[in-house]
Amino acid sequence: MSLTHLIALAVNLLIWLIIIEAIVANIIHFGGRISTHHPLVRLLRSIVDPVLNPVRRLLPPYKTGGWDLSPLIVILLLNFVLRFLNFY
Fold first, then answer.
1. 1 versus 33: which is more confidently predicted?
2. Predicted confidence band of residue 25 (pLDDT cuts 50, 70, 90)
3. How many domains does the chain have?
4. What pTM does this model have?
5. Cα dist from 84 to 9, 29, 39, 68, 74, whole Å
6. Taking 90 as the threshold, does the pLDDT of residue 85 lie above it?
7. What residue numbers bound the domain in which 19 lies?
8. Residue 69 CB neighbours (<10 A)
């Protein structure tokens, strides 16, 4: 397995973790039974938040009408990275 395949695999895994974190965050926000102190939620956020926080600083939710667009923006950027890796 080449290095580009390993990077693509890691990027795909990160995309899926971001999607899962966004779903969990919405469940928590709308009163679901998932606790923010659950070990899996904390692990997920410890992986995903370092990637999302720079985008959140540039485009905080209070500037976008309360919407957190950072997962969408990061997923689009990661898809661009995947397309770049497929060409080279």
1. 33
2. very high
3. 1
4. 0.90
5. 14, 35, 35, 26, 15
6. no
7. 3-87
8. 16
